[in-house]
Amino acid sequence: MHGAEEQTVRLKAPLPVYLGYWTARAERDGRVGFWKDVYGIDSRQSAALSERVDRLRHGALAAAAVVRPAVSTLTAR
């Protein structure tokens, strides 16, 4: 890794490699440390989550609108 030249090593069997990218981490003292999101992943994740929450909220409101008249009809008797 710290050598002057790159070296290619051919493996007999594939080796899975997992890369992690974190912009926040729990410190030993219990605080949360944050780092700059240089790839802009946090904002894309946040937008995708917000979009999903909006779709779920819209579906729940639509379902409630269908159920509400039936409930009021039952209670009116």
- Structural shape: elongated
How many beta-strand segments? 2
Q: Which sequence of strands runs across the widest sheet?
A: 1-2
Strand content: 5-15%
Low-confidence stretches: none
Structural class: mainly alpha
What share of the residues lie within helices?
40-55%
Largest sheet: 2 strands, antiparallel
- Report the span from N to C terminus: 78 Å
How many DSSP helices? 1
Q: Report the mean per-residue pLDDT as an integer.
A: 87
Rg computed from alpha carbons, rounded to a whole number of angstroms: 26 Å
H/E series: EEH
Characterise this structure.
With 77 residues, the protein is mainly alpha-helical. 47% of the residues lie in helices and 8% in strands. The protein has one helix and two strands; from the N terminus they run ββα. The protein has one helix at residues 41-76, and strands spanning 24-26, 32-34. Strands 1-2 form a two-stranded antiparallel sheet.
Short description:
Helix content is 47%, strand content 8%. It is mostly helical. Strands 1-2 form a two-stranded antiparallel sheet.
